[in-house]
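Reopening this one. Same input as before:
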Amino acid sequence: MSESPFNPVAPALANALRDATGIRFTDLPFAQDTVWLALDKRQRSSSSS
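Same output, byte for byte:
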């Protein structure tokens, strides 16, 4: 088999982030500030309701 163009790292990391945080990340890259902002947004929305 030659080199495959399929790279399973990004989908695996996205699933790990979803499992850990409960948030589905769909945009790459998964930068620290992106993850933190999503967690902060979820926290603010859950505390205001």
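So the earlier flakiness isn't reproducible anymore. For the record, The mean pLDDT is 88.
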